[in-house]
Design a protein that fits this description.
Elements lengths: L6 E5 L4 H12 L3 E6 L2 H11 L6 E5 L5 H15 L4 E4 L14 H26 L5 E6 L12 H21 L4 E8 L5 H14 L6 H8 L8 H12 L10 E4 L7
Parallel strand pairs: 1-2, 1-4, 2-3, 4-5, 5-6, 6-7
Amino acid sequence: MKLQDRVAVVTGGAGGLGAAIGQAFLAEGARVAFCDLNGAGAERTAAQACSDCARAGGWALDVSDDGAVGRTADAIACAWGGIYIWVNAAGVSFVRPFLECSPELWELTIRVNLTGTFNGCRAAIRHMLPRGRGAIVSLSSQSGKQGNSHYAAYCASKFGVIGLTQSLAVEFAPQGLRVNALCPGVVFTGMWREMLPDYAAKRGLREDEVQAYLESKIPMRRVGAPDDVARTAVFLASDDAAYLTGQALNVCGGTVMH
């Protein structure tokens, strides 16, 4: 088991990629705190993933609230004896033409995707430093490597996650902490399905044509699966990636190669 008895916090853990990552960590022996704005959903995901409450639990958490993130991290560390892994997977995404992207939508996207990652990293690092080891994995996106129309706020937030990741990796490598990012391509999670009507309108497609259109643009000719991302997260969190820090790994079927 690659993560035996290591305590992992996963934000955005009620569903989508966060839930998939938490479940993959459990399969590798970790103890996982599923955290989400939807606290009931986080508890439900934890209970479905593992019946042992000493190995999986759900916490309500607004990642944009720095105080709440710190208090939740303290509670998890107190209950389970520390934090070794932290995954920043909470996020929002909207498809909007730039001139229709309101300041409120911009602020929400930055607050959750980038400030939420900043808050998570601060809480994680404070708990990891005394132990002299730890791994942070933050979800960026292929849209954090390459801009796209109608995604101004999302792209800005995800480019920012990579910059934050690189800065922290340099600063805390001497203290034994590793900080990396994952850059998924299209994965049909609940968040993506909510965007489907707007994406279809952007491309002038019917909703039932979108998946085939996207797959035609991906070198591997398929959209991603949650497990594609989860397995890579396990790698980054484990000792298999002991010499990797400051990296932003693409998990996008070849769509982006830099």
